[in-house]
């Protein structure tokens, strides 16, 4: 079984005193993550640059102390790297598949970080009731932007942001889906470059602010943030 190489030097800057936990996470991805089908075998040698750091640098778009919900979390991307890079965040991972939830529970226990794992789908009413009012919703390789916005924006408080980690075609996707995003209550999608000088190439993140309710009405009045439920 492949064992991940030492992290790039920049990882110590990104993760600080949580670098040992980030290294354990990288080992999990490259070993049990491959065996249990969370990432492909060809990805094992690229977990730092392609997965962990690529996700962690999106932290520069997230305000201090934010309540973050990661939808379709899969192997914990981007939620776990963000939780490791930013101990100030309150992170919830939502994942529908039981085998992935079991793996995530094992990893979170081993890393000893205060991250909640929920089995479910972001579009389910129960998930919305439980985790609505988030400051940030994140997603990576979950769905096209139009569909993702319909699932993610209802989880956000007014003024909260959806951060979708995307690939090189992000600009084309934004042009194609911008009108649907607005109908779902989002603002104009913005393509952001994160981690300039840290990862090469920088990560591409599409940012969408929740500005209105789903029916496209006037912006909602901000509500008092709920305490995170365990």
TrEMBL record:
The top EC class, named as a word, is transferase
Q: Where in the cell is it found?
A: Cytoplasm
Keywords from the named record:
Cytoplasm, Methyltransferase, rRNA processing, S-adenosyl-L-methionine, Transferase
**Assigned EC number:** 2.1.1.-
Chain segments carrying region Disordered: 211-230
Q: Which GO terms describe its molecular function?
A: rRNA (guanine-N7-)-methyltransferase activity
Q: Where is the composition biased (Basic residues)?
A: 213-230
Sequence positions that bind S-adenosyl-L-methionine: 72, 77, 122-123, 140
**What Gene Ontology cellular component terms go with this record?**
cytosol
Q: Say which family it is in.
A: Belongs to the methyltransferase superfamily. RNA methyltransferase RsmG family.
Role = Specifically methylates the N7 position of a guanine in 16S rRNA.
Provide the protein name: Ribosomal RNA small subunit methyltransferase G
Q: Which species is the source of this protein? A: Pseudonocardia bannensis
